[in-house]
Specification:
This protein is mainly α. The chain has 19 helices and 2 strands. It has helices spanning 2-14, 17-35, 53-84, 88-91, 98-114, 119-134, 147-176, 179-197, 206-212, 217-223, 229-234, 241-264, 281-300, 322-342, 345-364, 377-409, 413-417, 423-455, 463-491; strands spanning 367-368, 371-372. The protein has a two-stranded antiparallel ribbon with strand order 1-2. The longest helix is centred in the last third of the chain and has 33 residues, at 377-409. The chain is globular. The two termini are 28 Å apart.
Length: 496
């Protein structure tokens, strides 16, 4: 039974374009980084080969951050596919084994989540061939490939990282039967990663930060920090020292979570019944009377002609122009979208993650290898950007999908689409709602930055620098991201 569900999971994914799109994106990114000096992944590489084991390991680790989102899509889909298609009640009544079903889905999603990251090696191989031929990079910048690099990275970093992330996603998906909660789990993983990074500012905590890094990025950085260019060109990561302890720690956490998920999983569905509220006394009489009056009115008007439908919208005393109607509809869509986000428990959890992430960074202060710096405004702005930029992109990506797919999931999109409104108004309201949410979070982050300056006794608060940075750099980015992600979610018929 395990093999059957494993093959079903793999077969369904290979028939879907999602897997190929993810693999193509990773391949394209690495191809650009190897074939050209204009593309960088993880920063400058120095005087080593562009396809050296050290560089390829960095690619695997950095792009593993994006891989968490891939894992979220695959594991959430594997856990909730039967539930979302309302096939689980039929399937769970068949004589199938719990272990075969659960682990077949889990291992299938685990294998699928690692496949896109193999595009690192394909992209590096294509870039090392095409780059010198096209004259984009000098031939002496390309070195030999080592099979050991691919094997070690896959079994030391890629597979454990996807297993750890997948264990959390799979557990949450089965527990809450909610895609939103699954993506919140992915955000929690990112928060844990960034929080551990704040420990690296102190030399005394580097080993602790290396062990607590959930992805092993800083672990490998500490492990290889004293390597010479020759060693970076020839040595692949090995399962020893800090890397070994880091991997054992998070593999152990992943095993515990996956076992707990298996033990809590059940084929039984929890049925919840809501008792009917019976109308009694005067309420029942009022309803009976209202029903009789409505029937009498319908019978009297049976012979009357059908009234003409007015296409123009009316206010209390006049007809509304097209611009006024669009504005009223925009306000309605914007208010509904914004309130649906801000009132959701998920947004509150996500906002807490962002505040916690920035708070940890601000509490650490500005001590760089034993030297203390004043919390001047430009440093605080840099801290805010460094701690929350990737987090905010993920928030915009996630809620863009929620806004576009919310009506489809609740099966009300056909009703809404049949109402007389301009589609552009609806789309523009979604973009405006996303930008508004991002702006609200950004101002909370700015307020935290100002408070951290005051608590440290620094009173030279340059509010104009905060505002100029926000309006010139941050806000245009939010507008572009919101419009881009809403466009993708609208055009591509796949939520993930």
């Amino acid at each position: 039974m395990f093999i059957e569900f494993l093959k079903l999971e793999l077969r369904a994914a290979f028939k879907s374009p999602m897997l190929y799109v993810f693999f193509f994106l990773i391949t394209l990114l690495v191809f650009g980084a190897v074939a050209s000096d204009s593309v960088q992944i993880g920063g400058a590489i120095g005087n080593v080969y562009k396809n050296s084991p050290n560089v390829l390991t960095t690619f695997f680790l950095i792009l593993g951050l994006i891989g968490v989102l891939f894992a979220t899509a695959f594991f959430n889909n594997a856990a909730l596919r039967d539930h979302n298609n309302q096939f689980n009640e039929i399937l769970f009544h068949l004589p199938i084994g719990k272990a075969g079903y659960f682990w077949g889905r889990f291992i299938g999603a685990l294998i699928l989540s690692t496949i896109p990251l193999l595009g690192v090696y394909l992209g590096a191989w294509l870039g090392s061939i095409i780059g010198p031929l096209a004259g984009w990079v000098e031939a002496d910048r390309i070195g030999p490939f080592f099979a050991e690099t691919l094997i070690n990275n896959y079994f030391i970093f890629v597979l454990p990282n996807m297993f750890f992330a997948g264990s959390i996603i799979f557990f949450l998906a089965h527990k809450f039967k909610n895609t939103i909660i699954s993506f919140v789990g992915a955000l929690a993983i990112f928060v844990a990663y960034f929080a551990s990074g704040t420990l690296l500012s102190d030399l005394d905590n580097q080993n602790l930060a290396a062990i607590t890094d959930v992805f092993g990025i800083r672990t490998y950085g500490v492990f290889s920090r004293y390597w010479t260019p020759l060693e970076r060109n020839t040595l692949s990561p090995s399962f020893e020292g800090l890397i070994m302890w880091n991997r054992l720690l998070w593999l152990g956490v992943g095993v515990v979570l996956s076992v707990l998920s298996f033990l809590s999983f059940s084929f039984r569905e929890k049925m919840r019944y809501r008792p009917f509220r019976k109308l009694r006394g005067a309420a029942a009489k009022d309803q009976t009377k209202a029903t009789a009056e409505a029937e009498a009115t319908d019978n009297k008007g049976a012979d009357k002609p059908i009234p003409r439908v007015q296409s123009a919208f009316q206010s209390k005393d006049r007809s509304l122009s097209g611009a006024e109607v669009n504005w009223l509809q925009f306000r309605s869509f914007f208010k509904a979208n914004t309130l649906s986000i801000t009132k959701s428990v998920v947004f509150k959890i996500v906002a807490f993650f962002g505040i916690f992430l920035l708070g940890v960074s601000l509490i650490e202060g500005y001590e760089y290898y034993g030297l203390q710096s004043y919390p001047v405004t430009y440093k605080v702005i840099g801290d805010i950007a460094g701690s929350t930029s990737l987090f905010m992109i993920i928030v915009v990506i996630f809620f863009s999908g929620e806004l576009v797919w919310r009506d489809r999931v609740s099966h009300i999109h056909e009703v809404i689409n049949a109402t007389p409104h301009n589609s552009f108004v609806s789309i523009f309201a979604k973009v405006a709602s996303l930008v508004t949410i991002a702006v609200l979070l950004q101002f909370v982050f700015i307020f935290m930055g100002v408070m951290s300056q005051l608590f440290r006794g620094f009173t030279v608060i340059e509010l104009d620098v905060y505002l100029i940075d926000f309006f010139v750099d941050t806000l245009p980015g939010y507008i572009i991201y919101a419009a881009l992600f809403v466009l993708i979610q609208t055009l591509v018929n796949n939520r993930y």
